[in-house]
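This section describes the prediction task in plain terms. A model, or a person checking by hand, is given the sequence of a single protein chain and must write out its three-dimensional structure as a string of tokens. No templates, partner chains or ligands are provided. The sample shown here is typical of the held-out split.
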Amino acid sequence: MSSQQAKAPHYFVPGPSRWPLLAGISMLVTMIGASAWVNGASWAPYVNLLGILMVLVVLYYWFGEAIHESESGLYSERIDLSYRWSMSWFIFSEVMFFAAFFGALFYARSISLPWLADLDHKVLWPDYTGQWAGTGPAGTIESFNVMGPFPIPTINTLLLLTSGVTLTFSHHALRAGHRRATSLWLFATILLGAIFMGFQAYEYIHAYSELNLKLTSGIYGSTFFMLTGFHGFHVTMGAIMLSVVLYRHLRGHFTPTNHFAFEGAAWYWHFVDVVWLGLYVVVYWL
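The expected answer:
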């Protein structure tokens, strides 16, 4: 137990906060902009960007307030336990989020397409053979090429696996009190995540310009960009979380025995790694 936790109250109860309300309003503005954007409204991109900026500002001040409470010695071991349970349930919700996406992929590939190509539907789609990555019934989808596992997806897999190792090294260094090693390994993890996102951006450019693979490329295109895009978003969020953790570590906020912010971000990053392994096999190989 750190000295701050030893002096903390039995259980800290914060006062009324404006941040949940502002976060809800910010997310509402974001979704209004996004929904109008996909329907072609000219003003929608600006509203969407405004909503995203509002969300970021709210998160900055909200988490800053929580960090200040922690550094002021208001958090006890009970608060630490609450944060651990909260992060665990948050990651569980993310597991269910991706489970729904993988489930949609399985349903489309293994149930819907064979069903549409069976004998009962030959009247509607006489030329449709149920191809997972094809032109669609009666040529309704432009021809495209699928994304293979080489070389970028395999490189990205190695990058994420390596980042999990460097993050583990950083955690062990922190628990051993080696501050410099903690910073270096943590920076290496963030750098690997940034390189991953760079490769994924290049992969998307390649998909659109050379493979003609787009969001409109049937169920294959929509599930491909849905799964890889949301995973890329999670990698970006994880890199931001680790960057904040690195900044806090450099400010001396963590001790070898009191550093849940580091652990929570590490849990999230390892979850992102595991999701990518499943995605790499199901999307790029099968």
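For orientation: The domain at 78-285 is CATH 1.20.120.80 (Four Helix Bundle (Hemerythrin (Met), subunit A)).
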